[in-house]
Amino acid sequence: MKTGEIIKRLRKARGFCQMKLTEKIGVNYKHLKKYERGTSKIKVESIQN
Question: Which residues contact 28 (CB under 8 A, 6 or more apart)?
Answer without folding.
Answer: 22
